[in-house]
């Protein structure tokens, strides 16, 4: 049985035609199912758990990157197959998974090509895609061996799992990671000079790690799979379990 978790923004009229076309395809493929509409305060993990008890075999997230993060930040390690139907703007995760936007995503879902993906964990939340801390006055310790900090300076930290790390200097650069290699990669970029209009940062240093602690004397912003929070201290590591996800043949890993 398929259960579809719709983001609240899909109630907008501009999405009506896309949703109707998508639902028609799902019916044609014989994989239409129960629809549950999410709200910002919805406990996605509780919903997934309850639907599993009722016989759900596949949970399909319908929306954008923020929807993806809202559901999987809590339910990522549930032992069930997850699918994703990307709709609208703010969809950077879908191309990594090889899933086209809009109604054509139903074709990918119907083929049920699945892979096991690593999952990151921090402070009792999960992330599948990427964790980002914008330049902040933070101290970083990884694998209980090495500490990185910049006295009176800031560091940008990006921890990648599915989404590659992309940065711009004189030209656009990209470092791809593999979400099935059983490790996380951290990219550190100290701010070396602050100009009038922008900050200048060093080339990123790459640190594969098993466990990392990030702390600061003042709250810093953490962005993970579309969800933001302010923290004083976080611990980041690879989750013990992996996620089973439906992907397309054009996935980028």
Automatic annotation (TrEMBL):
SUPFAM superfamilies: NAD kinase/diacylglycerol kinase-like. It comes from the Bacteria. Transmembrane segments: none annotated. PROSITE patterns: DAGK (PS50146). GO terms for molecular function: kinase activity. Residues 47-126 form the DAGKc domain. InterPro entries: ATP-NAD_kinase_N, Diacylglycerol_kinase_cat_dom, NAD/diacylglycerol_kinase_sf. This is DAGKc domain-containing protein.
């Amino acid at each position: 049985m398929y259960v579809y978790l719709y983001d609240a923004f899909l109630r907008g009229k501009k999405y009506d035609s896309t949703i109707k076309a998508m639902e028609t395809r799902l019916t044609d493929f014989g994989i239409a199912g129960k629809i549950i509409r999410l709200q910002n305060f919805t406990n996605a993990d509780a919903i997934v758990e309850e639907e599993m008890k009722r016989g759900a075999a596949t949970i399909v997230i319908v929306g954008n990157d923020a929807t993806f993060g809202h559901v999987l930040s809590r339910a990522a390690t549930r032992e069930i197959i997850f699918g994703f139907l990307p709709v609208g703007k703010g969809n950077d995760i879908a191309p990594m998974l090889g899933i086209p936007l809009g109604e054509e995503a139903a074709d990918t879902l119907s083929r049920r090509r699945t892979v096991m993906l690593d999952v990151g964990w921090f402070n009792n939340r999960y992330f599948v895609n990427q964790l980002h801390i914008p330049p902040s006055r933070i101290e970083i310790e990884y694998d209980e061996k090495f500490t990185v900090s910049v006295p009176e300076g800031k560091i940008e930290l990006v921890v990648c799992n599915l989404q590659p790390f992309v940065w711009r200097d004189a030209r656009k650069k990209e470092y791809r990671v593999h979400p099935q290699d059983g490790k996380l990669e951290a990219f550190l970029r100290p701010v070396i000079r602050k100009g009038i209009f922008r900050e200048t940062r060093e080339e990123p240093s790459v640190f594969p790690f098993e466990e990392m602690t990030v702390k600061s004397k003042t709250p810093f912003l953490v962005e993970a799979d579309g969800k933001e929070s302010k923290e004083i201290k976080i611990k980041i590591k690879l989750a013990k379990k992996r996620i089973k996800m439906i992907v397309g043949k054009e996935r980028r890993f």
